[in-house]
Amino acid sequence: MTYDDSLTKIHITQPLTSKTIVELMEDYPNLEKITCSKSLYDRISKKYISALKELEIIVEISYEWGRKPIYGDEIGNKVIELVNNGVSPEKIANTLNISLKTVYYLNNKFSNHDIKLKRGRKIKYDSVIRNKIKNLHDKGVKPKEIAQLENIPLRSVYYIINSF
């Protein structure tokens, strides 16, 4: 396993033993600080902590719970910028090479104002045409005639009628 020699701070998840201290000193020669959880700190021998203090290595409690974020501020800000420019979520996902779900997640996480991305497909027929079809149907015009008048497929007419 390769280690970064320039690291000055590491977080441990296993109790310190004399063997692990020696390994840490060999792997990280510039080590200045070791962090661990409170429960782990309580299990570390006070002799080890004082020995590390003599070596000018600080052992302190640090809470590092949960998974580290995959996408940082840079990608999140790019998503917000593209959303503000009116780019569709699908195009954002393709240009940034991230999943569509991630685009929605990053938009919700990084937006300071309510920019709602519409989920799903765009409506093919706007509300004016939909209302016109509904009114014609309410007047008793047959769906086949409505389809011919509006020059749209019959199944779309039925779909619009049934959606009201």
Automatic annotation (TrEMBL):
SUPFAM superfamilies per the UniProt record, alphabetical: Homeodomain-like
UniProt keyword annotations, A-Z: Glycosyltransferase, Transferase
Record has Glycosyltransferase as a keyword: yes
Sample GO molecular function, one term: DNA binding
InterPro entries: Homeodomain-like_sf, Resolvase_HTH_dom
Gene3D superfamilies assigned to the protein according to its UniProt record, in alphabetical order: Homeodomain-like
UniProt keyword Mitochondrion present: no
Ranges of residues in domain Resolvase HTH: 66-104
Residue stretches in coiled coil: none
Protein name per the record: Orotate phosphoribosyltransferase-like protein
Lineage of the species this protein comes from: Archaea, Methanobacteriati, Methanobacteriota, Methanomada group, Methanobacteria
